[in-house]
From TrEMBL:
It comes from the Archaea. This is Tetrapyrrole (Corrin/Porphyrin) Methylases. It comes from Halobellus limi. SUPFAM superfamilies: Tetrapyrrole methylase (SSF53790). GO terms for biological process: methylation. The keyword Methyltransferase applies. The keyword Isomerase does not apply.
Length: 267
């Protein structure tokens, strides 16, 4: 969410019904805005400690939220920036452990960073297709990339470690990733660091550079950055027969039934 400006109506209702709101968001202004509108806000940023495994942090967050919900007479909420099931590890555990503890858990969709990046990049995935990976999972499993399809590598600023740190990046942090990407893309291929706005007075940030220069961008990379890798121009010819079929009335008659659609009725 950009501050509180992208709250959907159903999320607004859910937060208004909640006795307490646990918040995963780094900015004071967001906590203050939620507190002004909805009441008690509990910030969870203190769970992140230098050098602590992120998995331990997520376990602590889940424990706090599920315990509070189990003990409360009224609903409690966990508010995250973005979509609660896109890159928010605690959500699945809250659902699983909450249900095991006899707590009803309801997840409401939100606007993810991916939605915002479509706009920032002018990208329509229906026209281009899309690949998307969490960056450490990509490298851990050595998943293949298709250069003719755009790719998003999420949380690129955390590459190389699953421990939390607020320390600045060294250039060497991005060497393994650059080398892996160069298996599929030329060194001169332009890629972009993209960071969706998280506050209402911000705009999306896009920084473009050649893949070979990745290490030189180390100081610019934030944990919330996504790496956008646009497609290499594809020389593959389209299937001419299928393209003709797509616009053929005779082919449409072959793949549809003769029955007419029933007329709309209020009965």
């Amino acid at each position: 969410m950009v501050g509180c400006n992208q709250l959907t109506d159903e999320v607004d209702v859910a937060l208004d019904r909640s006795d307490r709101i646990f918040l995963l968001h780094p900015h004071d202004i967001v906590a203050e805005a939620l507190s002004d509108r909805f009441g008690a806000v509990v910030r969870l940023g203190s769970e992140y400690e230098e050098g602590r495994p992120r998995a331990e942090t997520y376990d602590s967050i889940v424990d706090r939220v599920v315990s509070a919900a189990a003990d409360a007479d009224s609903p409690v909420a966990l508010a995250t920036y973005g979509h609660p099931t896109v890159g928010v590890t605690p959500t699945d555990d809250i659902v699983r452990r909450g249900e095991a503890a006899g707590v009803d858990v309801d997840v409401r969709p939100g606007i993810s960073s991916l939605d915002a990046m479509y706009v920032d990049l002018g990208l329509n995935p229906f026209e281009t297709g899309l690949q998307m990976f969490e960056v450490n999972d990509l490298l851990l499993r050595e998943l293949p990339l298709t250069p003719s399809v755009p790719a998003f590598l999420f949380q690129v600023g955390t590459v190389g470690s699953r421990l939390y740190t607020a320390r600045p990046n060294a250039p060497e942090r991005f060497t393994r990733l650059r080398r892996y990407l160069e298996r599929f893309y030329p060194p001169t291929h332009e890629v972009s660091l993209v960071r969706a706005a998280t506050l209402p007075f911000e705009s999306g940030d896009v920084q473009t550079f050649e893949l070979s220069a990745f290490e030189s961008m180390a100081a610019e990379v934030h944990p919330s950055h996504t790496l956008y890798v646009p497609p290499v121009r594809s020389e593959a010819a389209p299937n001419e027969e299928y393209r003709d079929d797509l616009y053929s009335r005779a082919h449409l008659d072959e793949i549809t039934a003769d029955d007419e659609f029933p007329a709309d009725s209020d009965e």
